[in-house]
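Q: I'm writing a short methods note and want an example of a predicted protein-small molecule complex. Could you take the sequence and the SMILES for magnesium ion and return the bound structure as tokens? Please keep the output block clean; save any remarks for afterwards.
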Amino acid sequence: MAVRPVLGILTLYLNDRGLLEERDVYRKMTLAARKLGLDLIVFTPDDVQYATNRVHAQRYVPESGSWQRIWTALPQMIFDRCRIQQSPRFERLKIFRARYGHLLFLNRPIGNKWSVYRTLLRDARFRDHLPQTRLYESSRDITAMLKRHPLLYLKPAGGTGGRGILSIRRAASGGTLIVQGRDHYRRIIRPMRVRPERLAEKLKAWDLRGRKYLVQQGIRIRLPNGRVHDYRLLVQKDGQGEWSVTGCAVRIGPPGSVTSNLHGGGQAARLDAVLPGWLGNEEKAREVQESIGRFGVEVAGYLEECYGPLCELALDLAIDRDGRFWLLEVNPKPARDVFRRAGEQEAYRLALIRPLQYALWLYRNRLRRRRNSGRTVGRKTTGSAGGASGLSPARTVGRKTGGKVLRTAGRAAVRAVGGAAARTRSDAAGLTGMRRSSAIPCGVQEEHEKKSG
Ligand SMILES: Nc1ncnc2c1ncn2[C@@H]1O[C@H](COP(=O)(O)OP(=O)(O)OP(=O)(O)O)[C@@H](O)[C@H]1O
Ligand SMILES: [Mg+2]
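A: Understood, no commentary inside the block.
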């Protein structure tokens, strides 16, 4: 009987007692993976025994309906689901990534919000969809931005879940500012009136410099009922190694919130239940939907060129009343729940299954390449690090010449794009085995190494 390839979900414990995020998602993925002929294990850097290159992984066993611990070899493929954490666990993740960088990763880390913003700004295709953003250095940044925009958002460059986000808007009358938002524990901060000359003092308590904050042009996304809303677009690689749109759903913030995040009490809704009404025109809503699909696929292809292989991204998009769309941020480790909660069952199913189909495609592609080339494709790049179960520790197309890795293929070229099925082909197998540090054409290396999700 053929041995099933193993996909390892790399994640982080949420605390020192071994709390694991998204276990139920991984349970569902295990069931789907079984049907496809793939085994799934879940592990964290803290489960790895470096001396032996073995892992004390968790595995869901459908027969008993329970999770088990097993000692096993490193998996043939790794799906990195680690989100940024301010903890020593995140430091240990960096060690893991460096030590086992030669293994086959479905995805590599991308930069924080600031790094991704600057990377996208370099390409003319994206500029018109990026809200003006700058790194906060002093309250003068806010004053300057307020001259151009009546609404601003202040958000941590490495934040998630709507924590520590403030909105500042010019009041309709009286020259004062209205500040509101979420504190660092995500609690709602009710609107406060602040005189512009007192703003700097107010913000001092907020520790904007210590945490690295962004000041961003705010987009007007309040629905007639007063709640903010935005759009979650998920793009993923599929079973042919192509980028495609999996789905797009709406998130609607709770009353009194300037953020829409589900963890902050937001609700999910179907796009077609909101966008046509918001734009006042069905036809326009369809056009915008197609445009954001094409945009998402282009962004994914481009970021992959810049940061290294990726297999999924979720874009947070604001759409203004004129139908212009704006990219608020790119999430490299997206949750899928928004589709389930919006009642988009098919998108939810695809969201779970596509990374598995892609992993299989990658695995088979690599085997085929090995057979066709009639030689061992994989070559170890770091002397001491171990290899994965089944396959030798391998790089796919990276060839060493005079100390530099050559990239032979990997530019994502936009092919037939259109509608929600917008797609590109990317030579993921060509990219994925490579060490990212030597394969970055966009000059964005500096920051994503330091802090990336
Ligand atoms: N420039 C903006 N204009 C309008 N609303 C914004 C803007 N930036 C952020 N928001 C609102 O705040 C929410 C959270 O912002 P953002 O997605 O940038 O941060 P986050 O905390 O990283 O969220 P996530 O958990 O999705 O990673 C957005 O989903 C949106 O509702
Ligand atoms: Mg977000």
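A: Remarks, as requested: The two ends are 38 Å apart (CA to CA). The longest strand covers residues 242-252.
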